[in-house]
Structure prediction request, 467 residues.
Amino acid sequence: MARKTKDIDGEFDVVIAGSGLGGLTAANILARNGWRVLLAEQHFQLGGLATCFRRKQHIFDVALHGFPIGMQKTLRKYWSREMAEHIIQVKSIRFDNPQFSLETTFTSEDFTNILVDKFGIERSVVDAFYHELSEMNFYDADNRVNRELFDKYFPGRNDVVRLLMEPITYANGSTLDEPAITYGIVFSNFMSKGCYTFSGGTDLMLEMMQQELEKNGATILTNAKIEKIKVNNGRVASAVINGREIKCRTVISNGNLLNTINNYVGSEHFSDGFREKVAGVRLNTSSSQVYIGFRPDVKVDFIGDLLFTSKHPVYDPEALLAADSTSRTYSVYYPEIRPGSNDFTVVASMNARYQDWAGMGAAEYQHAKDKLVENTLNALEEYIPDLRTKIDYTEAATPLTFERYTLHGSGASFGTKFEGLQVSMKLSDEVGGLFHTGSVGIIMSGWLGAANYGVITANNADKYLSS
Ligand SMILES: Cc1cc2nc3c(=O)[nH]c(=O)nc-3n(C[C@H](O)[C@H](O)[C@H](O)COP(=O)(O)OP(=O)(O)OC[C@H]3O[C@@H](n4cnc5c(N)ncnc54)[C@H](O)[C@@H]3O)c2cc1C
Prediction:
């Protein structure tokens, strides 16, 4: 069971600030390796963005639309075989927009056939595009941006770009101006071997993770905010949690990268050159969501598992961010996701700009949220007729909601842009024993990216602790 800060005594080898998938995974590996681990989460429950919440008889999953098959290996290796066995495929992924309507399994084979048969692209061009993606290497000095990559293979084909890019924009806030290498890596992971989910839902996964952490001896605190990371002679000395100073040799922050450097540690502990790099790090964009719960007596016909829908005429990452955007991803959670349950929910996710929501008065904010729900219900009615007679619960989340529950500046739901990765990875060169993990640099984003970055960070922290 998660404990309270006042019950903690003694010192720790590692304090982990935040229990997103990066922090949780790092905590589990280090606890398993025998280090004294304290995991402190400021929220009352674990998971960060990989979370869910209960309203009436419903459980709403916030970020369980789908992830790459690689998550199965990550769970098996760094969590448990039992958890890996919960990974199941998301079978029906649909696109519906003015340029095309189609269904796909999110595999390279299926995308190839669609590009050739439906979009009329030469098979050799599609193969060459995939080949180039597979050859992309993080360590190559490749300065091209996505726009150049698409112009090379599919010039003038905004429809093709929409098919290949829009899911990635939804998943990590990428635009056509991001480094092509980020697209290559994420696409090869995410849209080549299908899309997967966790049978039993986010609540079961987090419960299993908590049990595993406790079995491995980690101490877990909730409602526990890391307020300060104290540095002595260039090394981490302690962490201040809810006003209480806890001695430790390392801190892994799963909190926002810029908060970690500027607020928790303090920029005075970093070199001028590093501070300059930090100043150039851009936070990624945010999200809004509408959660829709259906009455228990209602049976809804199958409409697909994941629907990328839009009325916008073309692929345009800026338009995806607008508060009144018509571009939405619907995740449809049939009761089967939680075997034995009859709970049917739909979660609509939109990309969003923090500035469009910040600074409103209470009444204006409530009105904007109501409008978001109304617009979403109107749009979903196209796929589920008589929708309003079938539902019994709606709620909206905005960038302010994401900021409140995760403390990410500007409600950034996908970490930072690419330049944040180098800063995140070099923290310990500046302050001994200081590490960061979680969504950063676009590549380390999403369930798989965040969890795998937790593995990398845990290994680095382990080396530091052993040295
Ligand atoms: C709407 C939405 C839908 C998504 N859907 C998917 C999807 O379908 N598939 C997918 O792969 N990815 C999805 N993602 C992305 C994915 O959920 C995230 O990339 C991943 O969960 C982030 O993990 P993280 O380790 O970066 O930590 P985060 O989830 O960012 O969590 C950080 C944690 O640190 C805590 N914290 C922060 N500061 C402190 C502090 N000072 N002290 C203590 N605790 C602190 C926060 O409370 C939080 O719990 C989605 C994201 C959003 C927003």
DSSP finds 18 helices and 18 strands in the chain. The mean pLDDT is 95. The two ends are 32 Å apart (CA to CA).
